[in-house]
Every structure is written in structure tokens, then in C-alpha cells.
Specification:
Layout (H helix, E strand, L loop, with lengths): L1 H30 L5 H23 L5 H24 L5 H9 L1 H13 L5 H18 L7 H23 L5 H23 L7 H29 L2 H8 L1 H13 L6 H24 L4
Helix pairs in contact: 1-9, 1-11, 2-8, 2-9, 3-7, 3-8, 4-6, 4-7, 5-7, 5-10, 6-12, 8-9
Length: about 290
């Protein structure tokens, strides 16, 4: 019972992180007006790693092989996901990108079945499909096929791979250590990318204060620590469903802060995503053994 409460607490903490990610879309858009995507990711992940470094030094927990290998592989998948996403956004709409990225909710159970041997239950599949339909209703404004959609599909695959890798590695590694390794890998690869593009510029003060620092501290350092901890206790499929809440929160914040108005069709899509999470949670609650 205590383990179940602990799991639910970390899952809800991750839901709060996805809420912040939903808000951060406008802040990222603001930052990319003066920074390249590679430079933004460099400073975002570098500052996040620097924030965790004093805690890591204070704990004095040495890096194990599981920390380095698991964190390195997860970091590679995460870097590739952000690379595909930012490049794809140049050629498709934000709504299409949000929907295609959310297809990770279907890709993740398939990879979990193939790589981790996690069985695909009927309710699990129904929840994934229901979430995908809801995401389409929430975000898609047209059905035009763009080059960017194919690039963002690569992002969805990489995010699914990241969830799968982290699901296995997090159970064998120290949570803080593997989070720190992930951040350093993404920061290093993004810095190399920015250096090759000659775009590694320090952000201007408004961009630093209103975009880079909040996203680095809350959305990256805290965000990926919470996700890693949640994946120790939860299944990769449930984590993928929680991540799908990001565009739901994004729509809510655009409604509250930017004056965007969602249609009844959009709100029905958001409701379907929430129902998909409840459906999947009911399945796990029934079948998870005690303790």
C-alpha cells in the first residue's frame, strides 16, 4: 500500500512537470527568436547540469557503470528527440508537431513489448489509441502532410526510446547520477552542434531570465529528475500517457495567458486524453501485485 502511494505521488509530480512543459512552449518560442535551437538546448541543459552538480558533490555518490551507460544512452535518445523536434518545427505547424510528437503514446507500448517483454493488454491498447485520437482532436487544425511531420515523427520515436531506456536503466542506477549524466550528454552534443553551426551565442538578458533559466531549473533539472524517479516505480506506458498531457496543459495556458480559444471539439479531445489516463490507471491498479 505504501509503495502504491509512493508511486502515485511521483506520477502526480510528473503530471505537474508536464504542466510546466505545456507552459514553456511560449517561452521556448520567445527564446528561439534570438537563439538557434542548438544554442538554446546547450544553455538549457548546461545550466540544469550545473544546478545538480553541487548536490551531486555533496552526496558523494560515485558514478556506477549503470549510471554512465544508462544515462548516456538516455541522453543520446533525448538529444536526438529535441534535434528532430526543433528541426521539424521549421517545416510544420506547432499543432501538427504536438500531435505527431504525442504519437509516442502508441510507439512506447510497442517498444516496451518488443524490448522489455511487457504484455500489451486490451485496456492498455485502448488507452493509447484513445489518447492518440484525443490528441488529434486537441491539436490538429488540418490534415496536410509536411516534411516537418516526418521529422517530428522521428522525435516521437526518440522520445519513446528515451522512455524505454530510462525505464530499464532507472531501476539499476542512482536517480540523481543518471539524471546528471543525461543532462551533460545533451548539453555536450548540443554544444558541438552549435559550434559546427557557429551559433553558440550567450542569450540576451530578457531571454535568459524569462526563458532559459526557468526552463533549465524547473523544466530540465527538476523535470528530468522527477521523470527518472517516476519511472523507477511506474511502467513506461503510463509515463508515455502522462507526457501526452503536455499539449493539454499547453492549450489551457494559451487560453489563460495568450487569449487563445479552444473549440468544443478541442476540449473533447483533451477530455479523451484524461479518460485514456484513467482507463490505463484502472488497469494497472487492478493487476499490479501488492508491494
Amino acid at each position: 500500500m505504501a509503495t502504491s502511494r509512493h508511486r502515485v505521488a511521483w506520477e502526480w509530480a510528473f503530471v505537474a512537470i508536464t504542466a510546466f512543459w505545456g507552459w514553456s512552449f511560449s517561452a521556448i518560442h520567445f527564446a528561439l527568436q534570438s537563439l538557434s535551437d542548438a544554442a538554446f538546448n546547450t544553455w538549457r541543459f548546461a545550466i540544469a547540469a550545473l544546478c545538480l552538480l553541487p548536490v551531486w558533490l555533496w552526496r558523494r555518490t560515485p558514478l556506477s557503470r549503470h549510471d554512465v551507460v544508462g544515462g548516456g544512452l538516455a541522453g543520446l535518445a533525448l538529444f536526438a528527440a529535441f534535434l528532430f523536434q526543433t528541426k521539424g518545427l521549421r517545416y510544420t505547424s506547432a499543432s501538427n508537431a504536438s500531435f505527431v510528437t504525442g504519437l509516442a503514446v502508441i510507439i512506447t507500448p510497442l517498444l516496451a513489448w518488443r524490448w522489455l517483454g511487457i504484455a500489451l493488454g486490451r485496456q492498455q491498447l485502448a488507452g493509447a489509441l484513445l489518447a492518440a485520437v484525443g490528441l488529434a482532436m486537441l491539436t490538429l487544425s488540418d490534415m496536410q502532410l509536411r516534411l516537418g511531420d516526418a521529422l517530428v515523427l522521428g522525435c516521437a520515436i526518440c522520445f519513446a526510446v528515451h522512455v524505454i531506456v530510462l525505464s530499464r536503466a532507472s531501476k539499476l542506477a542512482d536517480t540523481l547520477n543518471i539524471t546528471l549524466v543525461q543532462l551533460l550528454v545533451v548539453a555536450g552534443l548540443s554544444a558541438i552542434q552549435a559550434a559546427l553551426d557557429h551559433s553558440l551565442l550567450w542569450p540576451k538578458m530578457p531571454v535568459l531570465l524569462h526563458s532559459v533559466l526557468p526552463i533549465a531549473l524547473l523544466g530540465t533539472a527538476l523535470g528530468f529528475f522527477v521523470q527518472t524517479r517516476a519511472q523507477v516505480l511506474s511502467s513506461p506506458n503510463k509515463i508515455a500517457l502522462i507526457i501526452v498531457m503536455e499539449p493539454v496543459f499547453g492549450g489551457v495556458f494559451r487560453y489563460l495567458l495568450a487569449g487563445d480559444r479552444l473549440t468544443l471539439f478541442n476540449w473533447c479531445g483533451a477530455l479523451l486524453i484524461v479518460l485514456a489516463m484513467l482507463l490505463t490507471e484502472w488497469q494497472f491498479g487492478r493487476r499490479r501485485p501488492a508491494g
